[in-house]
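ok so for the tutorial part 2 we go from a plain amino acid sequence to predicted structure tokens. step 1 is just haveing the sequence, like this:
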Amino acid sequence: MNATATTNGKVLQGVVVKAMMKDTCTVAIERYVKHPKYEKYLKSTKKFLVHDAGNTAKVGDTVEIREVKPISKRKFFTLASVVKSVVSEE
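step 2 — the prediction. this is what the tokens look like for a chain of 90 residues:
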């Protein structure tokens, strides 16, 4: 069997907020969380370091990331695909 078909890691969608490092980008994942006492929905944001071989993602792109085995101390995700690309105005 193919190794990618047997993995059961999480697949998340977020926005690239930083792409300055070599083969790494920072992706912010937003989700709605219900407050336990006041029952109001709040936006919760978490940033993940993502392995991006070849630096294909740019800041502002909406990307899909997949959980993999640890690549380094803080990198546990790899870039699966670019869902929506932002056209940079230069």
